[in-house]
Specification:
The chain is an alpha+beta fold. It has 15 helices and 5 strands. Helix content is 53%, strand content 9%.
Length: 333
């Protein structure tokens, strides 16, 4: 991750009268060097600094406050591109495409169904005990940046795959409503916001930032691990042929090799497909104008009965019961 992300923690812990030297002790990082936009910090070091920050501040909701103070400038040239984009949709498309310029530990993708939009955050690294801190900071940070660039509030939800922490009730009025124990890490909002014009749109600055992002993407993007590459393909293939053989062919390896690579990373092809199908199903069920049969078709199930059995296995509820729950909460439109 960029060194600038560490600088945000250095600024945040000052509220607890903790110095940069105290936070960076034992990390091997140099404060002056962190200001260099080319500096990248290994995930293990990031995790260690976050653990130390939470211990020194004794603030369990550290990730939330880290996200609240996040600014678009933290993302370097990609931040400049997003700031100069004409609309929120354009800024998100740029962020999805050029996220590897900033970090390979996380990626984003946008899904739109009817009036509903979902910006989904996928993990490609092990954040250990600071997973909650990282995911909370990322989602809240993206939310903050979106509001700052559009100049308006975003009405919606933030979903996290993690269980609800004890401290969350204290934060209810301070950010987007967060739902825990969800199938994906994502921001859910009205799709009409995607066409919100940005006040600072600048085509010249946008092109300059894009040129630099293109250059860095060509020199920095490493080969993703098998899990990340399969996950990326699953999100684009959607309801089409989700077979191990087809994915192996697309990745230029044999089915046996891909299966072995996924197992070495603690994953499996069926688990990744299941994970993506569950995330898409819960999102699509939030739109009452999409029928259950249509959802089953989009997810690649032969019939509605097979989809219903899978959904029962994932959630313990039928799709229609889950949809009714969303509607009663005001999620359905």
């Amino acid at each position: 991750m960029p060194g600038g992300y560490v600088l945000y923690s250095i600024e945040l812990v000052k509220r607890w009268h903790i110095t940069a030297d105290e936070l960076l002790a034992g990390s091997g990082l140099d404060l002056a060097a962190l200001s260099d936009p080319r500096i990248r910090v290994p995930i293990g070091t990031i995790v260690g600094i976050l653990e130390r920050a939470r211990a020194l501040t004794r603030e369990p909701a550290y990730g939330f406050w880290l996200g609240v103070q996040m600014r678009v400038s933290a993302h370097g040239h990609l931040g400049v591109a997003a700031l100069s984009a004409p609309t929120m949709r354009a800024a998100i498309d740029l962020s999805v495409r050029f996220m590897p310029v900033v970090t390979t530990a996380l990626s984003m993708r946008l899904e739109v169904v009817g009036n509903d939009a979902a910006l989904i955050l996928d993990e490609h690294a092990n954040f250990g005990r600071e997973r909650e801190t990282v995911l909370l900071a990322a989602l809240i940070g993206i939310w903050q940046i979106g509001m700052a660039l559009s100049g308006s509030d975003l009405d919606g939800y933030a979903d996290l795959v993690l269980p609800e922490p004890d401290y969350y009730p204290q934060l209810l009025a301070l950010g987007p409503h967060i739902r825990f124990d969800q199938p994906a890490n994502r921001l859910l909002f009205d799709a009409s916001a995607l066409d919100t014009p940005y006040a600072m749109a600048d085509p010249v600055a946008l092109q300059l930032a894009l040129d630099e992002c293109e250059r860095r993407l060509g020199t920095r993007t490493p080969e993703a691990p098998a899990t990340g590459r399969v996950r990326s393909l699953v999100t684009h293939v959607k309801g089409k042929d989700l077979s191990l053989g087809r994915f192996a062919e697309a990745l230029g390896v044999s089915a046996r090799t891909l299966k072995r690579q996924l197992a070495a990373e603690g994953s499996s092809f069926s688990a990744l497909v299941d994970e993506e199908r569950r995330a898409r199903a819960t999102f699509l069920l939030g739109s009452p104008d999409v029928s259950l049969k249509d959802i089953a078709d989009r997810l690649g199930y032969a019939n509605l009965a097979n989809f219903t059995r899978a959904f029962l296995r994932w959630t313990g509820q039928t799709p229609s019961a889950y949809r009714a729950t969303l509607t009663s909460r005001g999620r359905g439109r």
